[in-house]
User: Fold this.
Amino acid sequence: MRNYEMVFILNPGLEEEKLTAAVEKFTNLINNNGGEIVKVDSWGKKRLAYEIKDLNEGYYYLVNFKGIPETAQELDRVLKITDEILRFMILRKDD
Assistant:
């Protein structure tokens, strides 16, 4: 399995329950598609470098996981269609 790193920014208007639900949705997606979560870090609410969708802040999360290329592809597909996500990036880490 390959090592991946994902950073995503969630809408700052979300309630705590919805933030937790969104993070669980993505971690479950990784686990259900042949992946394994290594670490999930919440960086908290931070100011954005530039305005996205008329917002100046967002909740940042970093997820390190192991998986096959199909895991990352499915995660990318779901992140693109999730309304709560402002921006995301999935990177393959060198071994």
